[in-house]
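Work package 3, deliverable 3.1, input record:
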Amino acid sequence: MKMLEIKNLHASIEGKEILRGINLTVNAGEVHAIMGPNGAGKSTLSNVLTGREGYEITQGEVIYKGQNLLELEPEERARRGVFLAFQYPVEIPGVSNIYLLKAALNAIRKHQGLEELDAIDFLTLVRSKMALVKMDEQFLHRSVNEGFSGGEKKRNEILQMALLEPQLAIMDETDSGLDIDALKTVSEGVNALRSPERSFVMITHYQRLLDYIVPDFVHVLSEGRIVKSGDKELAKELEKSGYSWVHDAPEPEGQPA
Amino acid sequence: MKVLTDIHTDFSAVANSRDIMVADNARWKTLREQAQHQFARMGLPGRKEEDWKYTSLWQFGQEQFVHQVSQPGYADIHELKLVEDAYRLVIVDGRVDLTASSIDRLPDGLTVTPLSQSIDRASEFLNQQISMEKPGFNAMNTMLMNEGVFIEVAENTKIDKPIELIVVNSGHTQHYAMHLRHVIVLGKDSQATFIETYAGNDKANGMTDVVTEITLAENAELFHYKLQRESLGHYHVATMAASQATDSKWHNTNISLGAKLARNDVHSQLLGEQSHVTMNGLYLVTGEQHVDNHTRIDHSVPNTTSEEVYKGVLDEQSHAVFNGKVIVHKDAQKTDANQSNRNLLLSRGCEIDTKPEMEIYADDVKCGHGSAVGQINEDQLFFLRSRGLDEVSARSLLTFAFAVDVIERIANQELKQSITQVIEKRLPKGGNHE
């Protein structure tokens, strides 16, 4: 089943074209890694997919489970199962983590026509998900990400993902700012969520993350286009030779199925 | 003189009329005569008066207020009380409603009475904390006050329940003006919680003029919460002033939600060493509302502390003024004073004039102050939306989050909950954030 189809996507910010014809198909259950040097358009791609304001789509389309993703508000995308794990999770003083988790889960359940969970069922569910990312319960009652270390913030993102059970998770530079232990914990959390119904798009500069979360496909993004696609071995090549060669690469032909 | 000249209500005539009952008390009568004299001389302040620079009383001057009720008012206080179990006094349209009050079973050491019934004792404390020298409402209040609450807590007494005052403008009489004076006296080593709510019917369009004078003896501690939720056509002018002896503590929380024009003057005089004042403020205004908070803290002796946080949320065309003055007098060494005013603007049409001021005449002190004006953080908003919250709920949640630390500082849990509920209803498209 096709989860996500990006067709000839062009996007600009303040008149400057950043994405210049992206084509990508992600099937259910697949993990795709999108790699590329700084300025390739990685963050723009994740922002456009999740609906952040400020980008103009000049050409192309994005189909998510048969719907035109680009015409949906960010919250509508979330309720339909699209999740963004942020590169820099924002701190929200005054909003407790538990309140956020509950509000988010209930917004999605409501969309699915389900009842809100009562306090006890909710807490039981949250606790089981917290165990997955080895988070202490005290984090529930702290303000969202306020005073969290880099690793704690990223674990908190995975906790939200685990609770909301998205169908398409977009992970933006999830490994940035993580030490090796935190990287392992986060990766284990993600791996536990891999399933035949769930797809991942991991956007990353470094190959390191892919040692822990092994992708099915690797794509190289450069100057707003995917210039090369392959399997996990491609990431290792990149690790060896860097990104300098990608500028000379020819237009890609076709896509991995 | 820099005064407002165009005042349609003849307040001086009211003072001479039978609408205002004059108590048979020599000190009160003398004060009233002085006040009449001062008011006749100075009237109300114009905008050239520094303390009224950003608040115009022009429209107030155009109003024709009445001082006689056309029919007895009634108020349902079930919706208004903030705590269940309290020693409660209810004032409706300027008159004490004893059936709605519960002051008949007071513990030893506590006095809670209508001001009109304890004039001789209360008169000793009248106009001790306020001055009538400048044009302003203190003279008007002294000239026209005829009711209020008198609270006295004896030495070594801790009051088990909050004392709650509910003041309602019922709307049965249009443009009705109330002039109230509260006197609160806490003896040595005593402790009490005082909650005051001002509410009004949507049709009231009247005025509440209130002065609260507080005397805290050595090591007395007063937890003091004021919630002003009057109707949007109402005028609210209030002064809260305290003198604080050694080791005393005044924790004042001042929440302004209602009124067309609300002005609060909050003043603490720290007169004894180790005395402390907390001033927490929150104002939520929208539409054409105007709220003005002027605070002043005098650190007069060494080793006193103050902590002040005022936060404001402004929407639509509203206007807020904050002027916080902290004065560290010459001998007040080791003063520790902190003051901040933060504002969240939800629309382009609103206006905030904020001026934190510190005057420091001592050299060994720890003082900090600051003010900030900001908007909803777009990254936070996007984050919440990306988790499924719709835009309106996300904005409302972030607005609540901005205000929440003022609420978090409320010591009484029941009060904290009920104030949270009141505030949530006032948020843009208010939702439940519990």
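The helical segments of chain B are 11-16, 26-42, 58-62, 119-123, 137-144, 378-386, 391-408, 413-426.
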